[in-house]
Amino acid sequence: MELKKSTQKRHQLLNAALDVFCVYGFTGASLDEIAKRSDMHKSNIFYYFSNKEALYIEVLTSVLQKWLESMQMLDVDENPEEMLTQYIESKLEFSRLNPKASKLFALEIIQGAPYIQTILKGSIKKYFKRKVKVIAEWQAQGKIAKDIEPELFIMNLWSVTQSYADFDTQFEVLTGKTLRNRSFNQAAIKNNVQLLLHGALAR
Fold first, then answer.
1. CATH topology of domain 61-199
2. What ranges are recorded for DNA binding (predicted)?
3. 168: number of Cβ within 10 Å
4. Over 100-120, what HEC string results?
5. CA distance 197 to 96
6. What CATH superfamily is the domain 1-49?
């Protein structure tokens, strides 16, 4: 029972930290505000994390882990059209459900990734390279157009789908809608599959 309660408190703390970090960034965020939003005393934060930086890195790492989970479906033995369509859908779903997480990651990258540079250059880059090889193998099998650059293709998949979260204010001002609107969400999936895949799949 105590373990379950501790896990719930940790989850509550991470959610509160995400709320604060995505608005103020690492420098502007305060542990006092995070403690207030998580409904716990500031000193209790140090039971879970040694300092603000450790908490910040954990929030960002959890975002990256969720993104990597969705990339698991990109397997060389699967049908590229089906898998890439599902991947686009999953990335847009993440943008719909976790706009704050996407914005926080974008903010960190815009600032030069000072706190997750090691993670990006290490495990994330290795995982990225493995998925680049999947695209390259699909090309070798004649399933993906030869003139597509695998690394840039994956980066384009990321940037386009994440823009719906990172720039949701822009989407709402210009179109009057965001992914929270069911019909707009479906249109976004259809449009991105058309835009990103039809030029990439071999015909």
1. Tetracycline Repressor; domain 2 (1.10.357)
2. 30-49
3. 19
4. HHHHHHHHHHHCCCCCCHHHH
5. 21
6. Homeodomain-like (1.10.10.60)
